[in-house]
Amino acid sequence: MNSLWIDNYCVKYLFTLTKHHQEFSMKYQGSPTFTHSQNDKVGVLVTNLGTPDAPKKAELKRYLKEFLSDPRVVEVPRLLWWMILNLVILNIRPKRSAKAYETVWSDRGSPLMYYTHDQANALRAKLQHQHGDDVVVDFAMRYGSPSVDSVVDKMLQQGVRKLLVLPLYPQYCASTTGSTFDAIAHSFSKRRWIPELRFVTHYHDNPDYINAVADKIKAHWDEHGRAEKLIFSYHGIPKRYLLNGDPYHCECHKTSRLIAQALGIKADEHFTSFQSRFGREEWLKPYTDESLKAFPKQGVKSVQIVCPGFAADCLETIEEIGEENREYFIEAGGERYEYIAALNADEAHIQALTNLLESHLQGWTTTPENTQLRSELAVSIGAEK
């Protein structure tokens, strides 16, 4: 074998390796719209859980598959859960869930979607009034559309170099807040130029949030009077998550205690419970539905229920709490049942969230930069734009 053939082979091999390396390196997304003359911007991304695109079986199946495939949501061995999810749950639950969503769907779509949209618009107006157009505000859903990845991409293309993420979950939970961080991290892992990041993990004891919930309850009392007992109902999680170190249970109880203090009510006048469980595993107790069935036998005939863990009304508050649990209570002998709506896009809620965001934006507010000079200097050393 002559040396010339070997040399040619080596050159071709190295060329092939280089080509493959270039193709591999291109997996990281760049910023094709970037110019040196653009202003660097601060981004504020608010997120919530998500919703199907329509109250139809096919859309529910797609949404539930994404949601229930998240290992943060269901901590069960993957192979076992894959079989349960794909062979059982996704063949039964989508049709039933679609009927439930139909009861809360409106011309604007899913309540969670349009309330989150309204919240983002209101926050954008307040923050841009204070800081100008160099603050970009948008929203995303952890599951479904608009996805975290797609909105992060849109914000980066708009020139966002510093990103503040606010998951709209007042109480931290690995299944919600932790999963949102995973989605942000996954999006960043594909990008060549990663922005600075700040991430709000919880605001369960934030005074403005506490007062906004308390004031909403007071307004309801002013119009309808008080019931015998005020119920704080939070979304449940398996008890095993608490035992493994999740602080969610403790933060829910702290929220309840602080709201009760703001209202000036005694310990026996309020009650904290947990809703929305599924499966046979033990979840956080007491359960909301079972408690409501038991109250009339204990002499409690009137209740008012509020869900401080939900930043916006959705299926779990409107249908499950507003309708389903009402039936449990009345059928058990209860006489008066009232659901107090979530904060949604109420002015007090928007102001509380704005104050929270402002506290996390400290030191990040944009300062004017001579972008023309920056562009000229960049071009002088070879930049195209």
Describe this structure in words.
The chain is an alpha/beta fold. Helix 11 (about 315-330) links the parallel strand 7 (about 300-305) and strand 8 (about 335-340). The protein is built from 13 helices and eight strands. Helix 7 crosses helix 9 (about 250-265). It folds into two domains: about 40-205, Rossmann fold; about 205-340, Rossmann fold. It has helices at about 5-25, 55-70, 80-100, 110-130, 150-155, 175-190, 205-225, 240-245, 250-265, 290-295, 315-330, 345-360, 370-380, and strands at about 40-50, 135-145, 160-165, 195-200, 230-235, 270-275, 300-305, 335-340. The chain is about 50% helix and about 15% strand. The strands form two sheets. It has a four-stranded parallel sheet with strand order 2-1-3-4, with helices on both faces. It has a four-stranded parallel sheet with strand order 6-5-7-8, with helices on both faces.
From the structure above, extract its key features.
single chain; 385 residues; Rossmann fold; 4-stranded parallel beta sheet; 13 helices
Name the quaternary structure: single chain
Q: What count of structural domains?
A: 2
Biggest sheet strand line-up: 2-1-3-4
Annotation, overall tally of beta strands: 8
Average pLDDT rating: 92
CATH class of the largest domain: Alpha Beta
The whole-angstrom Rg is 25 Å
- Spans of at least 5 consecutive residues with low confidence: 4-15
- Please state the second-level CATH architecture of the largest domain: 3-Layer(aba) Sandwich
Give a quick summary of the entry.
The protein is an alpha/beta fold. Helices cover 50% and strands 15% of the residues.
